[in-house]
């Protein structure tokens, strides 16, 4: 396992460093991004550092920039909603409060679709109240464009952590490329999610995943070749990915269920919310069932060791009383409650290097 390098080389430092490179006052260029007149942050969902290195032949343009570079760490959990929140706010998960794929708020909130109890939760769990702190885009004071799929327009997560930018919907690699190169004097946040989808459905390293990686690589090369003079493109990711080859089913295991009132997270990392007074027994039971396949700790230990960074009083109740972070390739699935996720071939969220390490590759036109 590796812990996030908050304040040094984590996703929290990416957007502030790019804004500082643009000359925007009030932001620190911790990552040493070169000075630029326009900056675009391209988030390739699921493009882990180890995967890019392993499949370099499928992405020669991107992999060719890795030499001599050092990876970043995702925050914890190493999952999309949490990472996007850090890109948009510059804060740790313990500060912005999007602490996983699902978490208690106090209902179990799934922030990507912004659903709770199977229904749209934008009225009952108001995004601007779940994450009330100013976003980097609100603070920047410059033109900010968000280039992302239409379904993210007005979504709960976008309202929560990306508000302050002008949303420009994308429908494929072509208009994503066009919007990247159209940014001439401001900041652009661009998102591509199909590589992550290929990884979940077919597995990281599958033929389908490798073809998608090749398409992404060609798109980035095309965009760099068309960048305006003085503009910079930064390519990064929200997490890596590992295969799901071994599972433990919470929905059929009475030992894991005993004393648990709510289960959040995802197969690689679980927030376990316990009945009053049951935390110690639940911790012992989960350690007994999972053994050395997972790092199972109390909320206090995870917070003290900095998994979530600084944790505010507003956010702490969203963190499980027990946290289970998978090691190796094991997953805690829910075949009844989460049948789709339980059938994924690729997963992420925990503290292994394959999940935590991501690239930050910067390009300007020669």
Keywords:
about 375 residues, alpha/beta, Alkaline Phosphatase, subunit A, Gyrase A, domain 2, 2 domains, 6-stranded mixed sheet, 16 helices
Task: Summarize the structure in words.
- By secondary structure, the chain is an alpha/beta fold.
- The chain has two domains: 11-241 and 351-363, Alkaline Phosphatase, subunit A; 246-347, Gyrase A, domain 2.
- The chain contains 16 helices and 20 strands.
- The strands form six sheets. Strands 8-7-9-1-10-20 form a six-stranded mixed β-sheet, sandwiched between helices. It has a four-stranded antiparallel β-sheet with strand order 3-4-5-6, with no helix packed on it.
- A hairpin with a 2-residue loop joins strand 5 and strand 6.
- Helix 9 (173-182) packs parallel to helix 11 (207-225) and helix 10 (194-202) packs antiparallel against helix 11.
- The chain starts with 13 loop residues before the first helix and ends with a strand.
- The mean pLDDT is 97.
Largest sheet: 6 strands, mixed
Tell me the structural class: alpha/beta
Mean pLDDT: 97
Beta-strand residue fraction: 15-25%
User: How many β-strands, per DSSP?
Assistant: 20
The CATH class designation of the largest domain is: Alpha Beta
Q: Which consecutive residue ranges, at least 5 long each, have pLDDT under 50?
A: none
CATH topology of the largest domain: Alkaline Phosphatase, subunit A
The gyration radius over C-alpha positions equals 20 Å
With helices defined by DSSP (H or I, 4 residues minimum), what is the helix count? 16
- Helical amount among residues, as a percent range? 25-40%
């Amino acid at each position: 396992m590796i812990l996030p390098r908050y304040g040094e080389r984590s996703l929290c430092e990416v957007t502030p460093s790019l804004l500082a490179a643009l000359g925007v006052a009030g932001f620190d260029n911790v990552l040493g991004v070169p000075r630029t007149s326009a900056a675009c942050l391209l988030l390739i969902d699921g493009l882990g550092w180890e995967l890019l290195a392993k499949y370099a032949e499928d992405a020669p343009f991107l992999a060719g920039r890795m030499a001599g570079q050092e990876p970043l760490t995702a925050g914890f959990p190493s999952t999309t909603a949490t990472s996007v929140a850090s890109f948009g706010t510059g804060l740790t998960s313990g500060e912005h409060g999007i602490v996983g794929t699902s978490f208690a708020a106090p209902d179990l909130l799934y922030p990507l679709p912004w659903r709770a109890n199977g229904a749209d939760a934008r009225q009952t769990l108001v995004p601007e109240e779940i994450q009330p702190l100013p976003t980097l885009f609100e603070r920047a004071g410059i033109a900010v464009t968000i280039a992302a799929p239409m379904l993210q327009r007005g979504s709960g997560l976008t309202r929560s952590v990306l508000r302050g930018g002008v949303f420009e919907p994308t429908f494929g690699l072509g208009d994503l490329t066009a919007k990247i190169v159209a940014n001439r004097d401001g900041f652009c946040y661009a998102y591509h999610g199909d590589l992550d989808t290929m990884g979940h459905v077919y597995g990281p390293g599958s033929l389908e995943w490798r073809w998608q990686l090749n398409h992404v690589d060609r798109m980035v090369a095309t965009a760099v070749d068309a960048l305006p003079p003085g503009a910079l493109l930064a390519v990064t990711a929200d997490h890596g990915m590992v295969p799901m080859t071994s599972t433990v089913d919470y929905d059929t295991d009475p030992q894991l269920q005993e004393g648990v009132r709510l289960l959040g997270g995802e197969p690689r990392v679980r927030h376990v919310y316990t009945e009053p007074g049951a935390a110690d027994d639940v911790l012992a039971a989960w350690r007994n069932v999972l053994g050395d396949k997972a790092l199972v700790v109390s909320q206090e230990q995870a917070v003290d060791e900095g998994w979530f960074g600084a944790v505010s009083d507003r956010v702490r109740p969203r963190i499980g009383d027990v946290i289970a972070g998978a090691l190796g390739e094991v997953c805690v699935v829910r075949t009844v409650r989460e049948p789709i996720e339980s059938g994924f071939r690729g997963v992420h969220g925990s503290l292994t290097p394959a999940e935590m390490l991501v690239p930050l590759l910067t390009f300007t036109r020669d």
